[in-house]
Design goal:
Distance between the termini: 45 Å
Number of domains: 1
Structural class: mainly alpha
Largest sheet: 2 strands, parallel
């Protein structure tokens, strides 16, 4: 049996004193900076409270992988369309980063018509998420 691979992680908790909202010279909050320090990892788990900047941390890492680590494409998968709205174009260079996050509309499937269930229906024709 092969030995399980450890996945590098970044986990944060906040003191609720405002320090987590201060940005560095690249426009990164402390959690984003910690995640960015691990940008060379193949896998990375980021555990952080809602609205703490996980989506933006992923943008910083993906841009570095595309520009500096010979990655050809970045595929961002989210569990629901509402989270996907966090990945629209973002002018990161306005805050000090060296690149902007830009997504061509044809690649942003979160803006495609339909709901979170991908248009699936049960055999009776009702959406699969309907409870009776």
């Amino acid at each position: 049996m092969s030995k399980p691979t450890a996945v590098p992680s970044v986990s944060v908790t906040y003191a609720q004193d405002g320090t987590s909202t201060k940005s560095n010279a690249l426009g990164m909050r402390p959690m984003q900076e910690r995640a960015y320090q691990k940008r060379g990892e193949q896998y990375l788990l980021i555990k952080s409270p809602p609205a703490s900047g996980k989506s933006r941390a992923l943008m910083f890492i993906a841009l570095d992988k595309l520009a500096n680590q010979n990655l050809q494409q970045a595929i961002i998968v989210v569990p629901e369309k509402s989270i996907g709205s966090s990945f629209h174009n973002e002018p990161l260079s306005q805050y000090g980063f060296w690149a902007d996050w830009q997504v061509k509309p044809r690649w942003n499937l979160c803006d495609a018509p339909g709901g979170d269930n991908g248009g699936k229906k049960d055999p009776d024709g009702y959406p699969s998420s309907v409870s009776i």
